Amino acid sequence: MKTRYRTSLVSGSVLCVLLSGCMAALPFVIPPLLEFASGMLQTATHNYDKPYNYDLQELMMSLRADPNSQENHVTGSPQVLSENPYAEYHTYDDPTYSDQDGQGPSAQETGYDEHYEHQQSEPYQDNADDGMEPSAGQQYQQYNDNSGDSIPDSYRVESPKERPDLITLDVLLVRQKIRNGAVTLLPINDGDVLRDGRGNPQAGDKFRIMFRANTDCYVYVIAIDGSAWAQGVFPPPGNPFANPVKAGTQYVIPEQNNWFSLDQFKGIETIFFVATQQKRDDIEQIMARIGGRERSPRDTPDQVTEAPIIPQGFTGTRRSRSPFAIQTGLQEGQQLLPTTFFANTAGEALRVTRWFRHQ
């Protein structure tokens, strides 16, 4: 299998070498295969050093080019895909959001909170559920508004017929919300606004990532924050042997009673899911390098203002028939329906992009 990955990613390696040579003469060059992530990559060049940027570009290449696709095995090069199916998807700069309360910050806003004297090396910090239990007179309640879909209706395509050899992944991002003094759990839809605590991690929004595969497979979950800093969240750093995942098993990130909180870097935050039947050594090696780097952003970092949605990462979606069970402090907990994503073809990796606005 290692030979297959080396063969299939030859073009990606060559592109990275050519890119490194070009950057000495040009301020910023994006290969065509990475056009979907051009805004995020340009933000990274402003905020971080060249070694990290090379790793990030290589990571995007690995996410974009599936080494398991039949075309790659024949040609020995990354698959060249057609236009982005999300070309009309709205981002910060789209006037469609101008009349909405949840409008994201402009690209000129730095979003930097000087309260953070020392930079965190990980965008998402695990926060135990301590302090998140309801206070006196505050009760948890179930909230079921059937809003678990992660993709707007205008972008939903017909789901293919289920096949046992086709990877599917149930995905749900969920956050805590207080309504009328009661803590509820709500699904996070693409483009939703989450707010940090302005220097107080306990005061900001808390969220979790959940997924479930239909077959035993390898799943990689990578988060990129508003400053374009990448972090591997699954397999979790404390459990590198979590892969391969088991079919039908519900996985919650972070584990146990922990929730993610947001750091001070505002902007578009992206979470990539890759589900594949083969181990992805390329992704694991890149994330190991990034995880070993010290995070040293500029004093006034730029924000990511466009969601880097992987083109044609899946062939269709539908609302899952099986809800996720989420513990909320009550014995019965709460249930929310995730979205099911379908791989394009049998044996091909499934690649899902989810994103929200960090304000």
Structure description:
The structure is a single chain. By secondary structure, the protein is an alpha+beta fold. 17% of the residues lie in helices and 23% in strands. It contains 6 helices and 15 strands. The protein is globular. The N and C termini lie far apart (43 Å).
User: In percent terms, what proportion of residues is strand?
Assistant: 15-25%
Major sheet: 8 strands, antiparallel
The secondary-structure class comes to alpha+beta
Helix count equals 6
Instruction: Choose one word for the global shape.
Output: globular
Fraction of residues in helices? 10-25%
User: Which spans have pLDDT < 50 for at least 5 consecutive residues?
Assistant: 1-26, 71-121, 129-160
Rg (C-alpha, Å): 20 Å
Mean pLDDT: 73
Distance between the termini: 43 Å
Q: H/E series, N to C?
A: HHHHHEEEEEEEEEEHEEEEE
Number of E-type strands: 15
Which secondary structure elements does this structure contain, and how are they paired or packed?
Blueprint: H1 2-8, H2 10-22, H3 38-47, H4 50-64, H5 70-75, E1 125-127, E2 168-179, E3 182-187, E4 193-194, E5 206-213, E6 218-224, E7 230-234, E8 251-253, E9 259-261, E10 267-276, H6 281-291, E11 316-319, E12 324-326, E13 334-336, E14 339-342, E15 350-358
Helix pairs in contact: 2-4, 4-6
